[in-house]
Amino acid sequence: MAGVSLEAFRGGLVVSCQAFPGDPMDEPDVLARFSRCAVAGGAVGIRAENPRNVAAIRAAIDVPVIGLWKVGHAGVYITPGVEHARAVVAAGADVVAADATARRRPGHASFAEIVATVHGMGREVLADVATVEEGIAAAAAGADAVSTTLAGYTDGWAAPGEPDLALVADLASKLDVPVVAEGRIAEPEQARLALAAGAYCVVVGAAITRPTWLTARFVRALERT
Predict the structure, then answer these.
(1) For the segment 86-104, what is each residue's pLDDT rounded down to a tens digit?
(2) Is 0.90 topped by the overall pTM?
(3) Beta pairing partners, 145
(4) d(Cα 184, Cα 182) in Å, to the nearest integer?
């Protein structure tokens, strides 16, 4: 069952307001302003990365915030340890997103330990997974919801261009906790189809909040003419 914060996401759009290091948008105030725009447009929640950005966004909006902390760029790097989860909660996150894949976690706590820590602080946990088996294991470990965030990104191959709606449907048919559709959702129709496949809510990031990526899409199209 969804808790208080996750209940606010039911059937709605969560916007991921993040920026790569070095991107002109990678400033807490800029991301906070983007989050305000998203909420003004109807977003029911915001997904934010790094405690400094979580804190800025939490102060700028009045909808729930999914917080995470990316440590590195490979392997288990989305809120990999208990200390990262604690920092995200301290910054104001209502829900903590953490990697719950089956990959090795050298030097880091188990996903179950992260869940226990976050629950002990009175917050909920969103498990980022890549497969059905990982989603089932995450729910068994106490995750309050499971997200398809990492689908297509953990097997060493280039991720497909389309969202993995089959995984959304498979997870939704097997889990009692909410399933969040996230990853490569670039069009409103894809978001609608994700809900139709059984998603509890939909997370969209780059297609809304990454001007550099959006601009590059147009540039590549012009280069093909």
Answers:
(1) 999 999 999 999 999 999 9
(2) yes
(3) 126
(4) 7
